Amino acid sequence: MPVSADYSEKIPNNVDLHEDRRLQRALESWQPNFLSWWESMGPTLPTQDVYLRTAVNVGREGWAHFGHVAMKDYRWGIFLAERDGDRRIGFGAHKGEPAWQKVPGEYRAELQRLIVIQGDTEPASVEQQRNLGATAPSLYDLRNLFQVNVEEGRHLWAMVYLLHAFFGREGREEAEELLHRNSGSDESPRILGAFNEETPDWLSFFMFTYFTDRDGKYQLGTLKESGFDPLSRTCEFMLKEEAHHMMVGTTGIDRVVERTAQLMIEHDTDDVAALGAIPLDVVQKYLNFHYSVSLDLFGSETSSNVANYYTAGLKGRWMEGRRKDDHLLTGDSIMVDALVDGEIGQTEVAALVGLNTDLRREYVSDCQSGVNRWNRILADAGLPQRLYLPSVAFNRKVGAFAGIEATPRGERLTAEEWEARKDAWLPTEVDKAHVRSLMRPVHERGKIASWIAPPRNGINGKPFDYEYVRLG
């Protein structure tokens, strides 16, 4: 397989698409539908061109090219990481067998389902973010939004390639459906709940790219372990691009917290809303919401489906190769979050059944690193306030805690208590209206909205005041 992409083709790729004319024709017939979806459901702000990176290579060094590109001419393509001819399945009943290059018949339905669910999230976030360009706080931020959008579009291509190449007519039909479902639609919503939520402002966008794209990182990480080698190699390359999306979220929240802290010190007040910034308690409420919604994406604490995926070699654990066990887990156990005698606690289950909890814990630990980072900004400013991750039982709609209410500190509440107190923990209509009121576009070079600090660094060595986006 070539490492670098063939850009002479109608669909850039490094999978030798020209050698399979039938597959090439099928994907070329899907391409106009994708472009039509992008025109109708993608970014609404008119632009001449945007300073974007385009994947041109899958090697470890220098895999992307930067340049001004008209968005509609962006070269979405199909890229798989380099193939390891000696790769073997690392876990489950097929541990030690050569990785599959074709779909094993007995696992066809399960693999197709995993690919469809992953594929469905990619266009969903583009749809959720389509109007954000109109309120961008700077050209730098506008460019990052569009970079995230085009790469989510490319990740859709990655999953559609697998559906077309390995799943026959059913795969082609599923690829069509990925364009027919729409985020928040009453008739045909996206499959997972978080991808039907609105992203109406930039604080929501930064929280989404920090928390929800981080869920994507962990899901891709489990699929990268898959015994189905084309899926593994696809996800390995997607993870390279996903890192940028989380950086946008991490540094975006950094800059919101930094600006809020500056104004709190300067004016000796917690109430920075009147000063045109976002109060820390509102930042915490947005964090509470996006974190709890993202925890739901990992599914129930216990799952026989995930146990079966693992045993079959379809979906591994995060960093499977670094685990110091037998990679079979048949005799192992794990403590999972649960309601125990009506109280928030833990219970012991078979390790295979608790794999969702194992993955969620990796995610929670990773999320905490961002909170620590934002708290360092507050500490460096000399402020006593701190942000925190709420309890895993807070505001949950999936899993062990879906049927109860709890405070962010993990104390059980009655339904009446929750109704009386939830506005202290989740964004209210007043909070959302204030945040939206700050969302006035700043589309001049080198200028930035007053509610957010400028970034420490520009893109690809360029300064902050570079012309990242030329507006139409």
Q: What's the helix and strand layout?
A:
Blueprint: H1 21-41, E1 47-55, E2 64-69, H2 108-128, H3 139-166, H4 168-180, H5 202-223, H6 229-267, H7 280-296, H8 304-312, E3 333-340, E4 343-350, H9 355-380, E5 405-406, E6 412-413, H10 415-421, H11 429-438, E7 469-471
Largest sheet entry: 3 strands, antiparallel
Strand order of the largest sheet: 2-1-7
The end-to-end span amounts to 39 Å
Task: Report the C-alpha radius of gyration, rounded.
Answer: 23 Å
Q: How much of the polypeptide forms β-strand, as a percent range? A: 5-15%
> What structural class do helix, strand and pairing data support?
mainly alpha
Protein name: Benzoyl-CoA 2,3-epoxidase subunit BoxB
InterPro entries: Aromatic_CoA_ox/epox (IPR052703), Benzoyl_CoA_Oase_BoxB (IPR017635), Ferritin-like_SF (IPR009078), RNR-like (IPR012348)
GO cellular component, one term: cytosol
Keywords: Oxidoreductase
